[in-house]
Structures are given as C-alpha cells and as structure tokens.
Design a protein that fits this description.
About 35% of the residues lie in helices and about 20% in strands. It is globular and about 55 Å long. The protein has about 375 residues and is of the alpha/beta class. The protein has an 8-stranded parallel beta sheet. The protein has a two-stranded antiparallel ribbon with strand order 1-2.
Length: about 375
C-alpha cells in the first residue's frame, strides 16, 4: 500500500476496495465457453472458484451436498448451531423471524450460549461425508485444539481455521497452551486453510506453517462491525493484492504454491471477477448464498461473531431471496445487478479481457475510479 502522512510524523497506508476498481478490456476477446474457471485446492480439483462460507445462515449438511453437486463445496461451522443442537431447524426458523437490531443480537447470544456437543461434531462430519464432495469444516483458533480430533476421526478432509485475525501463533491465558499453527499444521493429517489475514507480512507467516490456503478478509462484509468495535478494516482489493504478492515471494522461497482465497464483501459477479483479478484463486461466499432459496438461514444473515457473548462484531440482517443456489451460481438471470449467474458473469469477464484461465486472469489490467471527494 502507498503510505501517506496523516499528521505530524504519523503515517497510514492508502488502500482500495473492490468498488474502487474496474477491469479493463484487452485487445483480444474470448468466447465465454472457451474459459476455464476450475481450480485445484491441494488434492481437490474443483469446477468453480467459489465455496460456501462456514456460517450457519449459509452452510448446512444439505447445502454442502448441493454445492458439491454444482461443482464446489461448503464449509460447515463446527462450533455453530449444527453442533450445539441435535435438530437446529426450529432454532434457525426462529432466527429467520427476528427483526434486525439489539433484540435480535441478544437472542442470538442466548441461542449460541448452548454448549457444543462433541458427539454432534462427529455426526455432522459424517453427514457431510454422506453428501459427497469435499468434507470441510471450520474451527476458531481458540477451539481448534479442543475439537479437531472428533472431526478428524469422523472423516474431515479439509479444516478451515478462521477468526477475525489469525496469526501463526495464538497466545492464550496463562493457564492455557498457546496454539502454534506451524506445529499443528505439520502434524495434522489433512490440508488446512488459515485466515483471515489482511497483510503480506501475516500471510507469509501463515504460508510457512504449511497451510494449503490463506483466507484474505478485509472485513468488507456489510454484516461485519469490526471497524466500529475494533477499529479494524482493510480495503479488500489491496489486501488481496498484498497477500497475492506474498504468495509469489513464498513460491520463490519454497517452491510451494499456497492458494489465496478472498472472504467477505463479495456480493456480485463483478465483485467476484475483480477479487480474482486482484490475485485471489477463489472466493468464499457468504451473503450471495444466504440469498438462496435453500439457505438454512431462511432469508436471515449474520456473521460468525454476531453472537459473541460480550462483544458482538456482526450485524443481523434480512436478505432478499433471489433464487435457487443453482441459479445464483449458474443462472439464468433475470436481474441486471450481478446477484444471479455469478459464474456466468465471471466467464464473460474473462472472455472480455481475453484470458482463458484464472491463473492468467491475475495478469488483467485494472483501472482505479477517480471519485469526487
């Protein structure tokens, strides 16, 4: 990022959001049918560069199975409602009726106060396995040592360790052992994705742990309140570009390619295309999939930190149901706002800019919007 003086000797880095950028058509165009949007995460070849976020409003065992049918996968939150309640359908139905505001936040806090049941972790992982596709689940850094064993024993194939800010070593209270992700990832039997990160420095440390992918989270999601509660928010386009540059440096250093996955703030096919053009290999989708007819949230959407017992860091909101998961990803679309046929929009973006693959799309030309102050 470019640095600028904000007063005295204090400097801050200037950055760009996806909305600040646009793709520039090239001298050569390509038919969308000739574009390859597949990617590979460790041993898994995937048709689509998108997957479902580990949010209770987005991913359930059934929607993960649906994503597998459509060429991708969903990540189940192994500390969410599906491991706190044997049958969370009534809880999800109640949440769908809540009105956004403090009352909804208090009710979320009450519902998430129910403890995680270890036996349910194994049962949910088994349900994911029965649904086909990549068996993926997420844990927070504070709980990964406690719960990962039950998930692994049940057949987990990909672990996502996700938090507001994930570092190579998490230091806990004096009576708790620190989580050393380098040691953890090295002895773990399955691939691990780590995040969120928003800087090259943090990202390269996570890459050195042995992670197969890092999540870039600029906290650009409209349900995140990290800026208001923690003062933390990094423009997503710049964060992706910084972490992609760290990936290149680490590749030269180690010969190992680590995937960069954008998370948060991706709402339209245009956002998806720009995130990939900035250097991401794939995108973890939240809000777009919460607007699907099959979404477990039933039209409600909330972040994983929205129910924190003492410092909630996410809004609860109602979203318009715009179509099935298949229509959201593959169309056809009857809207002009980019909320439907995300993959079709991505294919056309690659075609207009002349690139045949996502790896080559990283070379596309970008322009910065000049907006009046």
């Amino acid at each position: 990022m470019l640095e600028t003086t904000i007063g005295g000797a204090r400097q801050a880095r200037a950055g760009y959001a996806l909305a600040d950028l646009s793709l520039v058509p090239s001298r050569r165009t390509r038919d969308p049918s000739l574009v390859d949007v597949s990617w590979q995460l460790d041993a898994y070849k995937l048709d689509l560069p998108v997957f479902g976020a580990p949010l209770d409003a987005v991913t359930s065992p059934s929607t993960a199975a649906l994503m597998a049918e459509l060429g991708s996968f969903g990540v189940l939150n192994l500390e969410g409602l599906w491991t706190r309640y044997r049958d969370p359908q009534d809880v999800l139905a109640e949440i769908a009726t809540l009105t956004p505001g403090p009352t909804a936040t208090r009710r979320l806090q009450q519902l998430y106060a129910e403890p995680v049941q270890p036996e349910l972790i194994g049962e949910r992982v088994e349900a994911l396995k029965a649904g086909g596709g990549v068996v993926a689940g997420s844990l927070t850094p504070q709980r990964v040592e406690r719960w990962h064993g039950a998930a692994l024993e049940a057949g987990l194939e990909l672990l996502v360790v996700q938090g507001v800010a994930v570092t190579a070593q998490h230091v806990g209270p004096a009576d708790a052992d620190p989580l050393d992700l380098r040691s953890f990832t090295a002895r773990y039997d399955i691939p691990v994705v780590l995040g969120g990160v928003s800087s090259a420095k943090t990202a390269i440390h996570l890459m050195r742990t042995g992670a197969v992918g890092v999540l870039v989270d600029g906290d650009a999601s409209n349900v995140s309140t990290n800026n208001q509660t923690l003062g933390i928010e990094v423009p997503l386009a710049t964060a992706i570009a910084d972490v992609a540059a760290a990936r290149s440096r680490y590749l030269e250093e180690s010969g190992r390619y680590v995937h960069v996955i954008a998370s948060g703030g991706i709402s339209t096919s245009g956002d998806l295309a720009k995130a990939l053009a900035c250097g991401a290999d794939a995108v973890m989708l939240g809000r777009p999939l919460a607007a699907a007819a099959e979404a477990p949230g039933g039209g409600a959407y909330w972040g994983f930190a929205a129910a924190h017992p003492s410092l909630p860091r996410g809004r609860f909101e109602q979203v318009e149901t715009v179509g099935s998961t298949e229509v959201i990803l593959h169309g056809p679309s009857d809207r002009d706002d980019g909320q439907l046929n995300l993959i079709g929009g991505l294919r056309r973006a690659l075609g207009v800019t002349g690139y045949e693959s996502l790896a080559r799309f990283h070379e596309s030309e970008l322009a910065i919007w000049s907006r009046p102050q």
